[in-house]
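Mods, move this if it's the wrong board.
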Amino acid sequence: MSTAILTGPPAPGSSLDGDLRSLGFDVRIASGAEEAGALLAAVPAGERVALVDPRFVGHLHALRLALTDPRFPAAAAPGALTAQREARPALARALEAVTTTAGATGSGTLTDAHGLTDSLAEALDADGVAVHRPQLGTLVATVPTDAEARHEARAAVDAVDDEAVRLRSAVKAHDGFFTTFFISPYSRYIARWCARRGLTPNQVTTASLLTALIAAGCAATGVRGGYIAAGVLLIVSFVLDCTDGQLARYALKYSTMGAWLDATFDRAKEYAFYAGLALGAARNGDDVWALALGAMVLMTCRHVVDFSFNEANHDATANTSPTAALSSRLDSVGWTVWVRRMIILPIGERWAMIAVLTAATTPRIVFWALIIGCAFGACYTAAGRVLRSLTRKAKRTDRAAQALADLTDSGPIAELVARAGRRPGVRPFFRAPSVIALIGAALMLVFAWLDPFGSPFTVMAAVLYAGFAGGAVARPLKGALDWLVPPVFRAAEYGTVLVLAAKSHGDHALPAAFGLVAAVAYHHYDTVYRIRGGTGAPPAWLVRVTGGHEGRTLLVTVLAALLADRGDDFTLALTALAVAVALVVLVESIRFWVSSGAPAVHDEGETA
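Not the wrong board. Structure tokens:
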């Protein structure tokens, strides 16, 4: 239970008391400054507390946005202010200062003080507590000072449909074409239905995952009826995937666990469906595991490009580049916005394409369409970001450089080389980390591709790759194109596993490689969302235990060399490595997200 303190008796005919109770607040009324301070002190320290002017006039949803959003330690709207546990001491200090001033001027009640909540919000800002002020749009939140102003405010409230605004705001502002026009027009009503029945976003997220897993099972049957059912269920899963976020925004039920589940389950659903398609194709004698793994590698590398570029420019300061200016001009032409969103094949369009092709064609066609479409989208976005980076002389901060370093997932070998490169008097043989990474990755992939399976030269290439990996992170990643380093490393590691598994003589090496890349990709996605939440990268021990990208790459090449004549043993080795990595990263990830209290960071744009 949260507590709301009305700083005076409500106006006659006001529904404010009932509105606050409907939002889950225990309402208490203060008759003066000392009583308000005493009521605030009596509220248990771990509870949310709100101060509301009894003259407040506005929409219920305006109060909901200002007082119940769990993502912010403090929030305010005209006439209303809230503070969670971490902001309570600052609120107590601010209230004491304001009431002391009111006592000095002879004010008998808090409502006599002009703009009490505004004054408290300013005091919190000054005390270092960032006060969130929600964008209310057409919603009304005001404190009228006379009868005429009150009448006008109530008329303004009656003129706007509170519930319609709430439903519209439940939908992301920057969704893709398919989601905006084919899902959100009805999924928002499903979200409201769920909210009225007490369902939580996490329950809907879990239902979406289960539906996708059933869809994958249907695809694994390898029969046309199963493929049709899989396509239908995949769309149902996506509808639920949209609904969980809309429910969170509609009911303001954000949580750390929800943010983690929403972020990780999307990838789990999609990659499980890839596996289902590959199993279904195998039942019909068509081995498409290489295509399934290739699609997963391409998708993950594409996401890492997005994450790295955004982190590199998170707090960069520079003039807008000509490329960005051109993009802004194109956005001013309505139809180009939708075309540009569609051609990158975001999750809505991608899942719709996968569902339709699964129902109507074969898994091989699904994967080729997916690889071609995603490759085009990846090239389009990467080219634009390279142009922006080259034409925009950005000054990147230490925070951005650290985020990129964390995203590289450099293990003990790379760190040892990097420390040697940082010693005084040591000059780097090349000063562009992105070029160093590209050389090392190209060397690794070329040897893996051209040399026979198990060749010692491939192991030597992996050793050199580890050295290049260390050289790339020996200096802070603050260059214009240094955001390319993490995706280059991802492509090298995943690509090496794919190539070696494809060349192996083991019957099930590619499915084992699929499991290994899936486990490692989960670790990399988990790293991204920790950084997004402001909690930093996973602990150093986890990176050391899992070997880092260069350590795992070297280990796979060594296993291939040792087990070159025993393909089934290589498959078992890949499987054991996949299980070990999955167990370690999953246990640590679950421990962190359940116990850390990390902020609930929810994505407000459609995931690629």
